[in-house]
Amino acid sequence: MIETAKRENIVFTMATKFRYCEDVVKAKAIIASGMLGDIILFENAFTAKVDMSKRWNSDKKIAGGGVLIDNGTHSVDIIRYFLGAITDVLAVETSRTQNISVDENVKLLARTEKGVVASVDLTWGINKELPALYLGLWHERNAPYRLARIEV
């Protein structure tokens, strides 16, 4: 696909939606301003109990993977957008709650070039109650910055 795009002079990129959400843009500006100091820990969670039994992306033959491919790409993009390049990754699939052929619950740990550790929960099987919308940042000033949806 990359070679074809080059040959045909077509811009080829991964589409990411969260970079353009108002709350993520605001969080990026706060991080970039330096007002939080150095980020120490990053948390992200895309969690909801969703019946995946009849959805195309729960079929390994069609989708190739599950929640890690579906939502993990967004998590990795947000980590890179906020904190820079990722150098180390560990992903572990936890127990499944649905009878599907792809990963349904995944815990992802990543470390960035600057040494920030990111912890990510991805699940279609657990409705995890969270204190914030989907992001948390812990920084050197010891107070968490939790992203809550901005009401417009």
UniProtKB/TrEMBL annotation:
Residues in GFO/IDH/MocA-like oxidoreductase domain copies: 25-127
Pfam family, any one: GFO_IDH_MocA_C3
Coiled-coil intervals: none
Domain of life per record: Eukaryota
Protein name (database record): Gfo/Idh/MocA family oxidoreductase
Record SUPFAM superfamilies: Glyceraldehyde-3-phosphate dehydrogenase-like, C-terminal domain
Lineage, broadest ranks: Eukaryota, Metazoa, Spiralia, Lophotrochozoa, Mollusca
Family: Belongs to the Gfo/Idh/MocA family.
